[in-house]
Amino acid sequence: MLDFLRVTGLFFVTAVAEIVGCYLPWLVLTQGRSAWLLVPAAASLAVFAWLLTLHPSAAGRTYAAYGGVYVVVALLWLWRVDGVVPTRWDLVGGAICLAGMAIIALQPRAAS
Fold first, then answer.
1. Whether pTM exceeds 0.85
2. Helix (H, G, I), strand (E, B) or coil at 59
3. What would the pLDDT profile of 92-103 be if each residue is shown by its tens digit?
4. Model pLDDT, residue 111
5. Which of 43, 52, 73, 106 is most deeply packed, by most CB within 10 A?
6. Please, are residues 12 and 55 in contact by the beta-carbon 8 Å criterion?
7. How far is it, in rounded angstroms, from Cα 104 to Cα 108?
8. Which segments within the chain are labelled E, that is strand?
9. Within a 10 A sphere around the Cβ of 76, how many other Cβ atoms?
10. Rounded Cα gap, residues 90 and 111, in angstroms
């Protein structure tokens, strides 16, 4: 269970890195912010890619499980950064995504 919590926390940090790496260019392109924001955006996306390599599972399984956490972090971003309160549909969808992540992450592992 401790490993599951560690992986979930790592997914959370990974999602924040990805969202920041995409949000900063969005600010440049849609809000007219300084192009210098592209520098930390690129660094954040590089950190995101590196963080994905820290997971012990196969890449495809890691990406699949990560997706569930990403959805929840994006909803938290919606609420805390964009100032939009998630709807009950958002929350139910996020819970379903987390359940999917847990099913993938907690599946029995074959003995090597």
1. yes
2. helix
3. 999 999 999 999
4. 59
5. 73
6. no
7. 9
8. none
9. 16
10. 38
Residues 97 and 67: their CA atoms lie apart, in Å, by 8
What are the b/e assignments for 5-24, b being 16+ CB within 10 Å?
eebbebbbebbbbbbbbebb
Identity at 92, one-letter amino acid code: V
CB 55: neighbour CB atoms within 10 A? 18
- Residue that has been written with the tokens 């939009």 in this structure: 84
**Residues, the chain, total?**
112
Rg of the chain (C-alpha set): 16
Q: Which of 57, 53, 45, 84 is nearest to 3 (CA)?
A: 57
CA-CA-CA-CA dihedral for 16, 5, 7, 15, to nearest 10: -10
Q: Which two tokens stand for residue 95?
A: 């819970």
Residue at token pair 């987390």: 98
